[in-house]
Each structure stands twice: as structure tokens, then as C-alpha cells.
Write a structure and sequence with these properties.
By secondary structure, this protein is an alpha+beta fold. It is built from 20 helices and 32 strands. The strands form 8 sheets. Strands 1, 9, 10, 11, 12, 14, 15, 16, 17 and 20 form a 10-stranded antiparallel β-sheet that branches. A 5-stranded antiparallel β-sheet has the order 8-7-13-19-18, with no helix packed on it. A 4-stranded antiparallel β-sheet has the order 21-28-29-30. β16 and β17 form a beta hairpin. The longest helix has 24 residues. The chain starts with 10 loop residues before the first strand and ends with a strand. The protein binds beta-D-glucopyranose (BGC). The site of beta-D-glucopyranose has 12 residues, from loops.
């Protein structure tokens, strides 16, 4: 855990240069707009530890799978989100010495901040170079939320004592690599580089997938605040285009460069139009000052914040954290493009390939349901609907038949691209989360027509998978499910993972209900779908038999559901007794030691209690929580939030608060020692859940939105807006009172602490 980020309600601040923190800060201060993203790399040269990252949404490379021992059914590739053109590069050379903060003689001042209200990254530093030239640098940059193909940088250099030559080289560089490349391959073929005054451009296409990305650049120079028209040098290298400005600077002079970059791709344009579009974007933008463009960007952010801000009074640390989480979520996914999804690292790093995981359905969906237009959550569901054929193919590859679907654990296009057998083949509970998301969406929005439009086909295909994946155990006279990995990835190839068996059985039941509902509400569509899916009436008979006879391991003495068969044979040791030097165990222990231990990576049985809380009474919740949480190491970012919600429900105030801070500040405080790889974007939705469902006690009960506040004593108040169907509510909660205002929409009946309340129609 680290504690160097300064606490502030709206800003993420680092006020010292520490080389070992650099990669972490690069992740934390990443900026993005749903279409592209950029790590907080320095503009100028930097020789210290750094992960350079500039990403374009949806543009990926199928990196050939690398495994020790090939197994039939493995995917051929792992989809990698690509480090794309470096558009931020500005190299400074002072009397022949490059500016590089890792090599300067003295750092007089260093300060970086990400202003989340404005979506603006800025830096100030005052340094003396080895040649004794003292310079101060002020830089600001953003990727526009207003025009999502535009990035802008304002970079100022002031000489504090130096009189002499200086060069500023502003460039676009497509000579880039991914650090996580499996075979040290370069993923791009650079096709064009052009450098003419006012027209700088580079273009490259990905190998194999053939995506094209084009980046245009314009630069404007101000000398002591006034436009400066001295001619510059235009240099086109094979993979790079640069504009070089050389001048004599005197003590007290300030040179300001405004750099505009237009980033376009074949995701959105015909290849032939990419170049003209990129140049058009920068040529147009260059008519405006940095501040003018920033104002549009800030307005777009202000609309987002207006809808989704959460205010916490009395606790700056918690306030900063929730805003950071919301900010990163919206930087990653704005919901405008149904081909895109929410990668676990968003645009903040390479790890996890930028692809889609079960995280979207299990964690992110409720956030977008409550803070964005309904179409956003629907797009996330349709994304999986569009991948249904691929999920059926994927199941066929593994030997399943008759339209059974196994959705991938990790995907970019619907194809599986995860390659560790114990996860690829065995972590099949992901199918359950996809079905659960359909249920969750309909429960929240009331949009039952989704079933006949899209949902039922997905549910039936998933149910067909479960019906084939279980087997009848003669010995138990029940259905069992063998050789799986549950959400707790610190156990592999187990039999009867309670969560997987439970969600499978629930899916079958829910699908049968969904079939009946579609039949009732839209008989023509029902017949059409039954034909399309080649649905045999006997199928539901088998499903019902499975539901009635599913084996769910439990221990009656302890009153708990058992994570898997024989779990209690393990030596049960609380995490509290584990020497701190062993943590995180995934960085300190051999894999076999982890597998044999009782330690749980993330909510597993408790994930089931979170999803299906109304299936269990409070005593069952408490017993299972008290058994499992103490042996959980929370080494998945997805873990603390679920535990936080359950702890709130069980009135375990301290635990709920501890879990909240852990999920909310996971990256800010680098809890799991891995923020340098990128931020944990999908679990950030879990932070939102921990507040709204945890402390706010928000649920849907009998088709109504319900609240049951349970604020931590550290907080004076909690306020947020929430969309529910046609209504927009303002919720203000204090320790002993709540105020819920119907900001927009018709009269609404809600539930507060178990009481039904009518909120009148907005005037
Ligand atoms: C977790 C998975 C999760 C993945 C991506 C892993 O560490 O165990 O549940 O899907 O990270 O967030």
C-alpha cells in the first residue's frame, strides 16, 4: 500500500517526483474519452521507469497464444489492446542537453494533478539541467469529451537563468511497441508519414486485424504570450513526423507550444478518408486556443458530472476516491458505440488486453443503468447478443451441441482469447453473469420486451450449455458439475463449486420463466423464436429436473454453503494470522501453495449471496459472511466491493467502511501493488455499488426502487442522483434522515426503510 497521493475532493495530486512512483502515477492520471485514452507519460524524453500507452478503442491485435503445453480447444490468440501512435511527444533540448527529469541536476519543484471536474491533466516543474540551465515547465492536456477524436496539449517553457539555444521538437511517432507482446513483435505496419507546414500526419495499420489509425498534428507557438511566426523545420522519418522549432531563449522568456492531435481510425471511417478526417480535425481545432477548446471539453464533463456525481461530506479520502472511480469509468466507456465494452484496465494499461470480461455484466451494468440513458446499459447487453453465434461456436469447439453457448472469459469480437486452461475451459460461471445481467436490466428498467427482442435467445443458449455441462451422479442421485473454476481463481478444477451450480440452476429456472413470459406477451414472436432456436418442448422438462435435483454442497453444522466439495478438508486459517510479508500471496507464494491453502481471492459463495440475496435469510448471510470473509485475501479488485455491500446489509459498519475504502482507493493507494500496470476500471463500478447498494441500501423490490441508508459514521452526508425508469431522483442521506426528491418524471412510489412513499410528479 502507498500513500503519496494528496487528498483533495476533485483532484488527484502528486507533489514530488519519485521515480518508483512514476508508473503508478502514469496509470492514475490517465485521460480518456471513451474513444481513446492516454497514460500520463511525460511529453518530453524520460529515461526512468515508464509504460508508454496511447490507446484507441476497439483497435486490437490477436497476439499468438503463448502457453507451455498446448491443449485442444485453446484459442489461437490473446487479443491485445494496442499501444498506438505517440501523439504527445515534445522533446526539449537546451544547449544540446535533452530535458529528462530522470537526469536533471536539481528538481526545485514538481507537481502533477488530474482535475477530474475538468478532465484536465497538468504538470508544473522547475528544474536545473546538468548544464545549469534552469527551466520551469507548465503543461496541460486533455482528450476532448466534446470532440472525441481530438487531443490537445499546451506546453510552456520559461527560462529562469538561461540564455542560449533551445529546440522544441513536437512529433507524432508510430514506432511503438506493446510491453506485453508475446513474441516481441511490432503490431503495426506504418504506411505513411508526412511533414509539411500545417500538415503533419502518420498512419499505420495493424498486422492481421488490419485496423488503420491515422493521426494528424498542428502546432502553434506563442512567444511571451504573443503569436510567433518564425519558420520551423518539418521532418518526415519513416514512422514519425515532426516539427522542430529552434530559437534563442533569454532569461525570463516563455515559449508556449499548443499542440493539436486528431486521431481517427477505420473503426469509424473508410480507410481512404482517415487521413483527410484527421487533418480536418486538427486544422479546424488549430483555429482555437487551448482554453477555448478546453471550455467545450469541460462543458461535456460538467454534463456527465451533473448526472453521476456523488457527494460525500466529512470524508475527503472517500470523496476523492468515488469521484476518481466515476471519472475513470466514464473515460473508459460512454456507451455511444455498441461495438465497445469496458476493459478491466480501460485506457490505463495493456494488461487484460482491453477486452471484455464477466466484470461488465456482474459489476458495471448497474452503474450505467442508474447514471446514464437506458440505451447505454442496453448496448452492453446487445454486445453479447451480437456475439451469440460465436459463443455457440465456442461451445461446439469444446464438444457441446444443439445451440449450447459458452461465452468467452475474455473477448474482443466474441471469440475466446484467454489461454489458461483452468480459466478458459473451467471458469464457466461467466455464462451465469451474462444471464443475470439480462434479469438485472429487466428488473431495473421494466423493459420486458428485451426478452423477446434479444434476451431469450441468449438465455436459451446458455441454459442449453448448463443442461449439457452437468451430469447425473448415480451415487448422489443429483446433478453435479465437475471440473470447474469458480470466481475464486485460487482454486482450480474443483467439483461442485456452489456458486456455479447455484447460478446454473437459477439460469435454467429463469429461462423457463422467460419463455413463458414471451409466450404470454407476444405469441407470434414466441413461435418465431422457438422455430429459430429449434426448441424442443422436452428441453424444459430436463431443465426442470436439473433445477429440482441440483447438488449444492453445504455444511449443516456450520450452517454454510460450501465453496466446493471437500472445502472443509483445508486447514482454515484467518488471513489476519498470515504474516504481512506473504501478502499479496499471488506475488509471494508458489501456485500449488495457493491452491492448497484456504485463502480465497475474491467473493465466491458470497458472490452468490450478493446476486441472490432475497433467496437467503439474514442468518444464512451472517454465517456465510463470517466464515468466508476472514479467509478472503481480496487479491482481485472485484472482491472488496461485494463484501462491502454485504457488510452494510449485516450492519457491520467498520467492515463495510474498510471494504469501501479498499475498493475505492484500490488504485489511489496501490493496495495490491499492481497499479503500475493500469487502473482497475471494472472494479470501479464496484465502488459505486458499495456506496449506492451498500451505504444507500438501494434495491429493486416489487418493481419499486428502494433505499435503506446505513452511512458510515465518518460521513456527515451522502448525496447522489439516480435514474430509475422515467424518473430522475435526487437522494440526500444523513445519519438519521433522508430526503428524496423527484427531479424529473411522473409520480413515483418508492420504498424507504421498508415504508412505501409517494413522490409527487415534478412540477
Ligand atoms: C479476476 C476475474 C476478473 C479479472 C478481470 C481477475 O483477477 O479474478 O474475476 O474477471 O481479474 O478483472
Amino acid at each position: 500500500m502507498k500513500d503519496y497521493i494528496i487528498k483533495d475532493e476533485w483532484k488527484i495530486i502528486e507533489d514530488k517526483y519519485v521515480a518508483e512512483h512514476n508508473q503508478i502515477t502514469e496509470s492514475l492520471l490517465s485521460i480518456g474519452n471513451g474513444k481513446m485514452g492516454q497514460r500520463a507519460n511525460y511529453e518530453e524524453q524520460y529515461s526512468g521507469p515508464s509504460l508508454r500507452g496511447s490507446y484507441v478503442a476497439g483497435v486490437y491485435y490477436p497476439d499468438k497464444t503463448r502457453v507451455g503445453w498446448w491443449k485442444n480447444g485453446y484459442p489461437e490468440y490473446f487479443a491485445k489492446v494496442l499501444n498506438s501512435c505517440n501523439w504527445i511527444g515534445i522533446d526539449i533540448t537546451v544547449d544540446g542537453e535533452p530535458l529528462d527529469i530522470a537526469k536533471v541536476k536539481v528538481i526545485h519543484e514538481f507537481y502533477r494533478e488530474l482535475d477530474m471536474k475538468q478532465g484536465l491533466l497538468s504538470r508544473r516543474m522547475d528544474v536545473t539541467l546538468q548544464n545549469d540551465a534552469r527551466l520551469s515547465i507548465d503543461s496541460r492536456r486533455f482528450v476532448s469529451m466534446h470532440n472525441d477524436e481530438l487531443g490537445v496539449i499546451e506546453y510552456s517553457i520559461t527560462s529562469k537563468n538561461y540564455n542560449g539555444p533551445i529546440t522544441i521538437d513536437s512529433y507524432l511517432d508510430f514506432d511503438v511497441v506493446n510491453q506485453d507482446s508475446n513474441y516481441d513483435e511490432q503490431f503495426w505496419n506504418v504506411e505513411q508519414s508526412m511533414a509539411e507546414t500545417g500538415n503533419h500526419y502518420v498512419q499505420a495499420s495493424t498486422k492481421k486485424t488490419n485496423y488503420t489509425v491515422g493521426v494528424g498534428m498542428e502546432n502553434r507557438i506563442l512567444w511571451n504570450g504573443k503569436p510567433h511566426n518564425q519558420s520551423t523545420e518539418q521532418i518526415a522519418h519513416p514512422k514519425k513526423s515532426s516539427e522542430k522549432f529552434s530559437h534563442h531563449i533569454s532569461e525570463g522568456d516563455t515559449i508556449t507550444l499548443c499542440k493539436y492531435a486528431g486521431i481517427t481510425s477505420s473503426m469509424n471511417y473508410e480507410v481512404n478518408n482517415i487521413k483527410s478526417k484527421a487533418l480536418q480535425i486538427v486544422n479546424h481545432a488549430a483555429n482555437y486556443t487551448f482554453d477555448e477548446l478546453l471550455a467545450n471539453h469541460v462543458r461535456a464533463w460538467s454534463d456527465i458530472w451533473e448526472m453521476c456525481d456523488i457527494k460525500i461530506e466529512g470524508d475527503v479520502s472517500a470523496q476523492q476516491a468515488i469521484r476518481f472511480n466515476i471519472f475513470q469509468l466514464y473515460q473508459t466507456y460512454t456507451g455511444q458505440d455498441d461495438r465497445l465494452n469496458i476493459g478491466p484496465k480501460g485506457f490505463t494499461g495493456e494488461k487484460y488486453g482491453g477486452s471484455t470480461y464477466w466484470d461488465t455484466e456482474a459489476y458495471c451494468l448497474p452503474f450505467y443503468l442508474s447514471t446514464a440513458d437506458e440505451t447505454v446499459a442496453k448496448n452492453l447487453l446487445i454486445y453479447r447478443y451480437k456475439h451469440l453465434d460465436k459463443a455457440i461456436e465456442n461451445a461446439e469447439k469444446l464438444g457441446f451441441t444443439c445451440g449450447a453457448a459458452l461465452y468467452p472469459m475474455v473477448t474482443m469480437t466474441g471469440e475466446e482469447c484467454h489461454n489458461e486452461w483452468e480459466i478458459t475451459f473451467e471458469e464457466i460461471h461467466r455464462n451465469g453473469a451474462i444471464a443475470y445481467a439480462i434479469y438485472d436490466y429487466i428488473r431495473y428498467t421494466g423493459d420486458k420486451s428485451y426478452l423477446s427482442e434479444y434476451g431469450l435467445e441468449v438465455l436459451v443458449a446458455i441454459s442449453r450449455f448448463w443442461a449439457q455441462r452437468v451430469n447425473w451422479s448415480q451415487r448422489r442421485e443429483q446433478y453435479v458439475m465437475l471440473g470447474v473454476t469458480g470466481p475464486n481463481e485460487y482454486e482450480n478444477n474443483v467439483n461442485n463449486n456452489w456458486y456455479t451450480n447455484y447460478i446454473a440452476s437459477w439460469c435454467l429456472q429463469y429461462t423457463m420463466e422467460a419463455i413463458s413470459l414471451v409466450k404470454e406477451e407476444n405469441i407470434d414472436r414466441y413461435h418465431e423464436l422457438m422455430k429459430k432456436m429449434d426448441f424442443a418442448t422436452g428441453e424444459t422438462k430436463k431443465w426442470q429436473h436439473i433445477v429440482d435435483n441440483m447438488y449444492l454442497p453445504q455444511d449443516d453444522t456450520l450452517g454454510i454453503c460450501l465453496q466446493q466439495d471437500n472445502f472443509l478438508d483445508k486447514e482454515i486459517i484467518p488471513v489476519a494470522d498470515l504474516d504481512k510479508k506473504h501478502r499479496p500471496i499471488n506475488q509471494n507464494w508458489s501456485w500449488d501453495r495457493i491452491l492448497r491453502s484456504c485463502f480465497i481471492k475474491q467473493a465466491d459463495v458470497l458472490q452468490g449471496f450478493y446476486f441472490f440475496e432475497d433467496h437467503f435469510d439474514e442468518d444464512a448471510h451472517r454465517k456465510n459472511y463470517e466464515f468466508y470473509e476472514p479467509i478472503t485475501v481480496h487479491e482481485s479488485s472485484l472482491s472488496p466491493c461485494v463484501h462491502g455491500i454485504l457488510a452494510s446489509k449485516l450492519d457491520m459498519e467498520d467492515k463495510a467502511y474498510e471494504m469501501y475504502l479498499r475498493t475505492a482507493r484500490l488504485d489511489l493507494d496501490d493496495y495490491n501493488n499492481d497499479t503500475e500496470d493500469g487502473c482497475h476500471i471494472t472494479s470501479m463500478a464496484g465502488t459505486w455499488l458499495a456506496i449506492i447498494k451498500g451505504f444507500g441500501g438501494q434495491r429493486i423490490i416489487d418493481d419499486k426502487i428502494s433505499f435503506a441508508p446505513n452511512l458510515p459514521s465518518q460521513w456527515n452526508s451522502l448525496s447522489f442522483k439516480i435514474k430509475f425508469r422515467e424518473n430522475l431522483l435526487q437522494v440526500n442521506m444523513k445519519m438519521d434522515s433522508s430526503e428524496i426528491i423527484n427531479l424529473a418524471g411522473p409520480q413515483l412510489e418508492i420504498i424507504h426503510n421498508g415504508n412505501n412513499i409517494i413522490l409527487p410528479k415534478t412540477a
